Amino acid sequence: MIQSETLELLEWHRLCQHLSTFAATKLGAIVARALLIPTTLEESKELLAQTKEVYQLESLLTPGLSFEGIQDIGDSLERAELQGILSGEELLAIATTLAGARNLRRLIDNQEDIPILAELVAELRTYPELEQEIHRCIDERSQVTNRASQKLGEIREDLRKSRGQITQKLHNIIQAKSGALQEPIITQRGERYVIPVKAPQKDAVPGVVHDTSTSGATLYVEPNSIVSMGNQLRQAIRREQAEEEAIRRNLTEQVAAVKPDLEKLLAIVTTLDIATAKARYSFWIGGNPPRFVNRQEQQIITLRQLRHPLLVWQQQHEQGHPVIPVDLLISPHIKVVTITGPNTGGKTVTLKTLGLAALMAKVGLFVPAREPVEIPWFDQVLADIGDEQSLQQSLSTFSGHIRRISRILNALGTGDRRLGIRDWEMGEMRENGGDGEVIFLMPNAQCPMPNSLVLLDEVGAGTDPVEGSALAIALLQYLADHAQLTIATTHFGELKALKYEDVRFENASVEFNDATLSPTYRLLWGIPGRSNALAIALRLGLKPEVVEAAKSQVGEATDEVNQVIAGLEAQRRSQETKAAEAQELLRQAEKLYKEVSQKATALQEREKDLRAYQEVAVQEAIIQAKGQIAEVIRRLQQGKPTAQDAQQATKALSEITEKYQPAPPPKPKPGFMPKVGDRIRIPKLGQTAEVLTAPDTDGEFSVRFGIMKMMVQLQDIESLEGQKPEPTAKPKPAPAVIPPPAPALAIRTSKNTVDLRGKRVADAEYILEKAISEADGPLWIIHGYGTGKLKQGVHAFLHKHPRVSHHEPAEQADGGTGVTIAHVEQVTSDR
Predict the structure, then answer these.
(1) Of 13, 485, 546, 797, which is most buried, counting CB atoms within 10 Å of its CB?
(2) What CATH homologous superfamily does 312-550 map to?
(3) Which fold would CATH assign to domain 148-254?
């Protein structure tokens, strides 16, 4: 009972009425106006997930979800099951509903990342064959069509002919008896064709009179000559009606056969409609999806910029005042919050706003607050808001509050322990306990604490202030033990001190503007409200001497408390101003950071483009250089190269190198020579190492890093300060008797390349001898890897050959150790 009473006090029905205006179907609007509150957390999460997915879907689809054609066919399904015959309108409504449901399912199936909605429509059966059969038999005007059955077509053809014969006969009579007629027209009375005959000349057209005009001057006569034809027409009409009824009965039986599936279809479509209405209403009020938190896990209730949804509606539709939001940040250890402050300051609105927010979250609606929205899932929302005076039941304000609070405490749990509270207004509730005692059941202290939200407005009001204050304190302390969260408004100053006695209590107050002597409707946390009754009374015109006398009665202690509270409020306003300034500085810093980041990104993009441009230019230069080198090689390959040709090729290659090879980077200034025991850095490996041996003449020495030892070259290391080592002085080689071959001849061509792969050593020696005799420079010998025997044989042959000065493995690009370059001495010629 108290739950339904709470819904009434919070005006939940008004919110549901507003929600119903966003429903697309009649059935959806009916369900929305009587929206049920879920009883489990899982059900609430399911409803919230539906709203989120529809919200997401609506943002992706321009027209949103369409419920066109879907109608409330519940009554028709019931009548079909009871073997009633559905009308054409009802059958057509079923067909359009099937089509609308199929379009909905197709739309949802074509989307991604909406698993809840996809699962909801997965079992939706739309029976396209039934829909097609209905459209075949029923036209857009809800009439049975001629194609519904062959018999019906034949009957209607007979009807057409009969009507043609009757009208033709009547036209002949009209022409022959025009003087006896009021008008030359054919009309109907009681499904019989008649003509209007003047009453004085009724004998001119003998027949059956079916009707007369109001004045009696006109008789509607069916001539005797068409009476038999009319009888035949009526019989044909009866046959037509019987056939139409048979067709509709057949369609009705088909509908009745799938009634359970159609009822399920209707339920699924209505669920989608409700979810869509919630998503659209949530968007309209600027809501955000709530997250259910567990206060036992030390999670905070976070409701920033929370607005009352009914006031938002009033502002938008009824040009109401702007809605002033409140901030509710409640720590998990807080069980009771007492809100104090002047009347009309917004205390009651705060209670209702929080209660509606809790209910909205439970039914899957977004909450009109700034993200993140974090609120517990309350098993019950119980409220005592407003007055419950009743002359008929002899209830005062205090008695009404006690009755409702009694029901709240009973709803928190059941037990056999009773609590007696004296009836401070004697004689008004004696019937409950006798001897002026109010009796109501209290929850058993051994029961676990229900996850309930209790909202109490003006707790303890309506009776003696001292006793009312004591009752309020006892009640709030009890609720701290037995309810998850209690929010209470009060004017009693004694309740403000509970915070300093019990950590589960917190104070809040509605702000009051001393300059305008009016509330600002802002909620201040941690500061109790001060009494402004005297200031307001003075502003409302009460004589100053009366107000001054009242101040003297209040006493200095109260005045000092008010001054302390005023000081706290001023300090809080100062802190809020500084916080706002800090927020503005933070906003400017974020803006500056964003601008700098954008510029840095632009520079990086520009550098990237420049590198890409340079890479393209380098690639083009390489391609061009390769082309020129290829041209030099082609010239060399045109005939047997001579020394002069080699010199010209060398000169050409030097020019190409100077043109395309980039300038070498400046070499770092040498600065040190590593000694045994020094620490050096190896940039290629990203490691530092210890020198174990001094560098040899080739600049190679041993180092150790960790447990590993390795040989490195001087050019591969640097000091810890980044200095490069001094190059080692190498002994000058003795002057060669035979000058080295010209660089140009080091170019590999098909003429100076011999492929010995797959040959035996003996065959290879014969081929080599022939190639060496014709060679005039380096000779590339391809022997491959294999077992290594061919390579060994080739090297042994070259080592003994008198024209081969020396041989060496080819560069890695030319085959590496699988290719040997033999340097063949030139033979002096007389050319």
Answers:
(1) 485
(2) P-loop containing nucleotide triphosphate hydrolases (3.40.50.300)
(3) MutS, DNA mismatch repair protein; Chain A, domain 3 (1.10.1420)
Instruction: Tell me yes or no: is domain 670-725 CATH 2.30.30.
Output: yes
3-state secondary structure 544-566: HHHHHHHHHHHCHHHHHHHHHHH
Write the CB contacts of 160 (distance below 8 Å, at least 6 apart in sequence). Answer: none
Q: Which of 276, 368, 341, 251 is nearest to 23 (CA)?
A: 276
Per the CB < 8 A criterion, the answer to whether 195 and 172 are in contact is: no
> What secondary structure letter does DSSP report for 686?
T
| Pair 289, 374: CB distance under 8 Å | no
Closest CA to 165 of 234, 236, 233: 233
Confidence label for 574 from pLDDT (cuts 50, 70 and 90): low
Q: Which has more pLDDT, 187 or 610?
A: 187
What digits encode the pLDDT tens for the residues 641-699? Answer: 666 666 666 667 666 666 666 555 555 455 678 888 888 888 887 788 889 888 888 78
pLDDT digits (tens, 9 = 90+) for 209-259: 999 998 889 999 999 989 999 999 999 999 999 999 999 999 999 999 999
Asked if 303 contacts 375 with a C-beta cutoff of 8 angstroms, the reply is yes
Tokens 């840095």 -> residue:
600
The domain locations on the chain are: 2-127+258-284, 148-254, 312-550, 670-725, 748-824
**Rounded to whole angstroms, how far apart are CA atoms 176 and 197?**
13
Q: What separation, in Å, do the N-terminal and C-terminal C-alpha atoms of the chain show?
A: 126
What phi, psi does 554 have (nearest 5°)? -65, -40
Question: Which residues have C-beta within 8 Å of that of residue 650, sequence separation ≥ 6?
Answer: 742, 743, 744
Q: What is the pTM of this model?
A: 0.61
The answer to whether 2-127+258-284 and 148-254 have equal CATH topology is yes
Place of tokens 């107050």: 509
Q: What CATH number labels 748-824? A: 3.30.1370.110
Percentage of the chain with pLDDT > 70? 80
Does domain 2-127+258-284 fall under CATH 3.30.420? My reply is no
**How many CA atoms are closer than 13 Å to the CA of 213, on its beta-carbon side?**
12
- Other Cβ atoms closer than 10 A to 238: 11
Q: Single out the residue of 186, 230, 180, 236 nearest to residue 205, CA to CA.
A: 180
Tell me how far apart the alpha carbons of residues 700 and 681 are, in angstroms, rounded to a whole number: 15
